[in-house]
Design goal:
Blueprint: H1 14-25, E1 29-35, E2 38-43, H2 48-59, E3 63-71, E4 79-87, E5 92-100, E6 106-107, H3 116-127, E7 131-132, E8 161-166, E9 171-176, H4 202-209
Parallel strand pairs: 2-5, 6-7
Antiparallel strand pairs: 1-2, 3-4, 4-5, 8-9
Length: 210
Amino acid sequence: MSKVLHSAPRFASNEGVVEALTKALGTMLVAAEEQHGEVVLTIQRGEIANALRTLRDGHEYQQLMEIAGVDYPDRAERFEVVYMLLSVTKNHRLLVKVNAAENTPVPTVTTLWPNAGWLEREVFDLYGVIFEGNQDLRRILTDYGFEGHPFRKDFPLTGYVELRYSQEQQRVIYEPVKLNQDLRQFDFLSPWEGADYVLPGDEKAEGDKA
């Protein structure tokens, strides 16, 4: 006997979602729009926990799938923290974001979803965003002695330090990275200052010139 499978109810359109959530969030909402087929809500930073609670409890966005960071160094508030929500009953995704500067903490949402603790730690580790109220805000992907935040746009591709095992000291040691030119600090009006030694294969080019 065949069974008829019924999919979860969908919204008629993203336009209806924007209208309903704009009304529900009120003054907590900074902006609401559709981008590339996704509904994107920008929330007042201090109200992010209240806004996400409203979306979870009042509008069935039960799951926090991800928290991501974005860096725009030319902005006064250079970071965006993006929360990706899923409604399993409506079969609908939602992007919620707040803006933050290096010295403006974002309220934690670990009181709403326990998995937010790990996700906030990742954004802190890679971007340096501080989550106020997170009781375990430690690095999670880089080493505990790592300096800087590697997903920032102004972080050099080589990092600031390198580590190696020292036979003399019988332990792993950190040493500053030394380059003729930082890989993030290009001067496009000047030629690249390359290595001060002959690279393998370059001796053939010198021979051709002769």
